[in-house]
Amino acid sequence: MSYHLSQLGWDEHFTSSFRRFDRADSSPGRVLRADRGVCTVLTADGPTRAGLGGSVMLDAARDPANLPCTGDWVVLRHWPDRRTTIELVLPRRTTLIRRTADKDSSGQVLAANMDTVAVVEPIHPEPDDTRVERLLALAWESGADPILVLTKSDTTTDPAAVARQLGDLAPGVPVLPVSVQRGEGLDALRGYAGPGRTLALLGRSGAGKSTLVNALAGTTVMPVQAIRDADGKGRHTTAYRNLVVVPGGGTVIDTPGIRGVGLLDTGSGLERAFADVTDLAGRCRFDDCSHDSEPGCAVQTALADGSLPPRRLASWRKLRREVEVESGRRSARLARQRRIPTPPSARRL
Question: Which tens digits make up the pLDDT trace of 272-281?
């Protein structure tokens, strides 16, 4: 099956990046899936399997985040022996990245070059406010436009009321109640995965991400498992990141269910996710206000009159502390790397 690259998101931005690598034995492609050093890549002639070239491996040795990931546009080289390798990852326009479990503040790239990140949260048994806030900070930091998708809207009598409630946690973010069972909200969601556009789905296991992918694709392309009615949780149905082409052009990226999300140095993402709190903080009398007992504190005034819930402020403070810690770890890691001399063999490459 062949593809028109523009339907997959190829545009003048990527054309310009690829131009100096355009030669007879090279072509562009978009990574559908990356698995243990081998990638499935969509090209104008259809999907192909590609290993990693030497330059990509060298970049990855410096920083694992440089490895090709789902959604990346790459430069493929076609060898006389019919091998195909990825020689370069073209500069990413947007990047969805979370902190890994180690303590050196490194990152794991979940997806790249998406136009929209949908934070997917189920209405049943009930939305988790703290998780929504954390995922929205991650989505804002990616550089893409975030939306909040509330799945299983058929499990409540008034999904619009739930959407309004969750909207208070998502300043400036569209909130879409969706029911795949009833077909409600899907048309609005399809607009984010139209021709040339990419929608990435982010949420926990059992949130309904794979069900949404299947609905958008019009067929079963991702496995779906039943969840427990008691708590709404399910086993991981997607253990890898996968890009799916939807009918009429456009793509959607399904990411593995995330139990915990560590934030990196997501200062700007956190500010946008908590735009209501940061706006209040900017109105305080003192620039270094700690928002505890200082005179002229707009945050404390909002707490007193009920316009700012205490839980919202506590969540903001917790995530700010986390970002500050990770920023310090990242700075220390980069400083250590600068002190390590480059081996002579590597300098000759």
Answer: 999 999 999 9
